[in-house]
Amino acid sequence: LRDAAAAQPAPTPAQFRQALLRHLQYTVGKSPQKASLFDWRIALSHAVRDHAVDPWFNATRRTWDEDRKRVYYLSMEFLIGRLLEDQAINLGLREVVVQVLGEFGLSFAEVAEGEPDAALGNGGLGRLAACYLESMATMGCPAYGYGLRYEHGLFRQHFENGRQIETPENWLATDNPWDFTRPEVAYPVGFGGALAEHNGAWIWSPGSQVLASAHDTPVVGYGGKWANTLRLWAAMPSADLFDLNRFNAGDFAAASEPEALARSLSRVLYPNDTTDGGKELRLSQEYFLTSASVQDILRRYLAAHQDLLKLPEFVAIQMNDTHPAIAGPELIRLLVDEHGVNFDTAVQTVTGVLGYTNHTLLPEALERWSVGLMRKVLPRHLQIIETLDTQFIQLQGSAPDPVRLVSNDQVSMGDLAFATSHKVNGVSALHTELVSKDLFPVHNELHPGRIVNITNGITPRRWLKLANPSLATLITDTIGAGWETDLERLRELEPYADDPAFRDAFGRSKRQAKEHFTGWLAQEHGIELPADALFDAQVKRLHEYKRQLLNILWTIAHWQRIKRDPQAGWAPRVKIFGGKAAPSYHMAKLIIQLINDVANVVNNDPETSHLLRVAYPPNYGVSMAEKLIPAADLSEQISTAGMEASGTGNMKFALNGALTIGTLDGANVEIREHVGAENFFLFGLTTEQVAERRAQPGHARTALEASQTLRDVLQAIAEGVFSPDDRHRYDGLLDAMWNSDWFLVASDFEDYDRAQSEVADCYGDPDRWQRMAILNVARMGYFSSDRSIREYMSQIWNVESAL
Ligand SMILES: CCc1ccc([C@H](C)CC(=O)N[C@@H]2O[C@H](CO)[C@@H](O)[C@H](O)[C@H]2O)cc1
């Protein structure tokens, strides 16, 4: 990173203390004597935020002055988590904050713990967007993130009798110090209405209109040299929609209905992470985000340029999956209808601007909007899509069965996004291969080179420096600082894998992380765990393809084995689960209940509870991940091969010294290549073998008949061992195991069991385990989101760093 814009020097403790007290008194209105932890946090956030403003202004001004190309990352989700400690670290303020708070008898951790997570996302896609924003700022890439300012993020999860219960999340209930309200930045977004032709031009007059109002959050890069903007849109009634007459007539509900409708556009995040519900409000949310963002982008562009055809030289828009894919038709609409650009020229220009990232192959996750709904909500856009469809058919010449953007009365947003983008990327090498071969074979043929791979990454600032301070300090003490922005430097740790002293220090930092996590778990959830056990963790959204079921079935088998032979010298193991299920995903919710039912029996079994525990702390999210991941010894990445596009949790665990047990799926393939096959516990069918096995009728029964161990497990479940009060609770699940098993849990069980016994053997040899863990950390540099962003900048966005 060129050290062009030197960050301002860190304040002295005295200066920072003064700033903190000034905010406590004048921003929060409290004296130190009276201040609560909440007051201190708000005051501290403002004192830290003050240091973000200068690099933010500098970056904005330099981008204007140097007329630099900007990147716009459009995403329906940004799974940010907390910001206080992250911003303090990136601004180089963590040490001075810890010192000054100490002078008031406060710990940074207890003050920071009160901040609500900004949970504006479901899982992988949303968190990736947050890591990428931080990396773009660290890399000095001029960029904006555009998203929705949901009043309610991803629901809060708690368990009642082992069942998931959802309650609304309310992050905005208290003041959000990172939010800069921009009432002057507001755009009307139209919906519905009618079309009329006038002199060969189409005029769209929307039936209703909502105002998109901007809220900005500074995204500071590591080192504080550059800062970008996350602009979140809030829906506001365009005019005073409150119907006073109706109110005076006593019909309050009707009076506020139009207003409520307007606000509903940014009310709540849809909690589905794999099924496209096809709901009108979801499509309206997607268009609301896209239209406001595209209008803001064009306003900024035209403030410095006249020629709209040069847009691709100064603007790169990245669509985070198909959710903002309406951006193509929206930009074409504005260029053609409002700026008089010729249709084909507009299509060419727009294609030069747009990039599309695909994050899943799951058919049910590919968005297909009904033509009827699209015509109702976005009639002009449907027209444009139909024209693009016609052009796309022509492009395929005499192909007997041409691929359509519109077919079976549905608009395929994936095909639309592909057709209107100059680059399309998958998120791991294996996934991109499958995207080319299975998802878009015809497009790929028509546009060779349009598909590129950019393997996901994670920010080492949040996921190592912030989450695992003891390991981060050990690394810096060993190889010096600088790895934070040049993660490949971790390779310098390799020789230390053979250094007993370093292995001990490494072991101690893992132990420290485990005690930090178990302390929090006991205090926050009343779950007691023995820190010297093997911490075996599977934390991610609940989904059948992620195979939490395989994990819990193996756990039952392990429990049964211990009961059969308690003296066999079993290594104490703790099975940690974490993750939410989409509220309408019943099989996923049943698997959650099974995990809790098994935990209930196993944890209360006096014969085994000293050797095996199952913990499932509710409400897994970013902040829990920051505590849990550094404490893990084993990372479960056990999806059915070909179904996990990449995974990013897998990277976070390996970077924090956990060993992976996993299949050849998503980024596991590349992690294993980088850390070495000998430092990875591989099992399971490959993507090709999965396809073959699925083609074999009765493959589930065949696999079950070949595994006494698994049959004993299913027998116990069928007998109600884990649900004595409801013996038939899992009949549906058992039936699916015997008769379909689409996710091949039975077919992979025995090999998984084999890999798990290798884990136990290896864990029994601490030097060997530490050595493998250190080599994992040393060889994870490639998986920094800085590397991913560098590739986006060179292969898709054609943008230079400003630093
Ligand atoms: C329309 C409902 C919906 C919402 C979100 C999604 C996301 C694409 C699901 C998701 O988060 N996918 C995950 O993206 C990660 C980041 O690339 C990958 O690492 C995961 O493998 C992938 O499952 C699909 C469908």
From TrEMBL:
<keyword id="KW-0119">Carbohydrate metabolism</keyword>
<comment type="function">
    <text>Phosphorylase is an important allosteric enzyme in carbohydrate metabolism. Enzymes from different sources differ in their regulatory mechanisms and in their natural substrates. However, all known phosphorylases share catalytic and structural properties.</text>
</comment>
<comment type="function">
    <text>Allosteric enzyme that catalyzes the rate-limiting step in glycogen catabolism, the phosphorolytic cleavage of glycogen to produce glucose-1-phosphate, and plays a central role in maintaining cellular and organismal glucose homeostasis.</text>
</comment>
<protein>
    <recommendedName>
        <fullName>Alpha-1,4 glucan phosphorylase</fullName>
        <ecNumber>2.4.1.1</ecNumber>
    </recommendedName>
</protein>
<keyword id="KW-0328">Glycosyltransferase</keyword>
<dbReference type="InterPro" id="IPR000811">
    <property type="entry name" value="Glyco_trans_35"/>
</dbReference>
<keyword id="KW-0663">Pyridoxal phosphate</keyword>
<keyword id="KW-0808">Transferase</keyword>
<comment type="similarity">
    <text>Belongs to the glycogen phosphorylase family.</text>
</comment>
<dbReference type="InterPro" id="IPR035090">
    <property type="entry name" value="Pyridoxal_P_attach_site"/>
</dbReference>
<dbReference type="InterPro" id="IPR011833">
    <property type="entry name" value="Glycg_phsphrylas"/>
</dbReference>
<dbReference type="Pfam" id="PF00343">
    <property type="entry name" value="Phosphorylase"/>
</dbReference>
